[in-house]
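A protein record pairs a chain with a discrete description of its three-dimensional fold. The shape at a given residue is found from the number at the same position. Here is what such a record looks like in full:
>
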Amino acid sequence: MVLIIFFVIIFFIDLDHYIIPDELTFPLMLIGFIKSFDPNLNLNLFPNYLDSLIGGALGYILIWGLITLYLRIRNKEGMGLGDAKLLSAIGFWFGWYSIPYVIFLSLQKLHQSFLLCFHQLEQNLFDLHHLCRL
């Protein structure tokens, strides 16, 4: 429940201000790591402390690497470290094996968004072409 509340708050802040505050991601990371020490933990859903630590590090390093690569290629910042910290928090909560799934689902959603935009652009061009023929 805590995770969902944090994600909803982060979603609306990011939507309005294009930032993911450290005040929200750091507690998520800390709670995600601390809960991995719980002896009554459901290990089918949540990782042990080692998988949690690896997941947090892997999530951060992957996004940080993309940010650094984009900065070197384009000489401008494409995304902030808030995204890296958020993926790190997901890694702390669900372990290193959740990171590929999150990235895959994100890329799939991005692909769907591009297809929708291109379809709408194609429809608008078709309508414009049709209008010019009249």
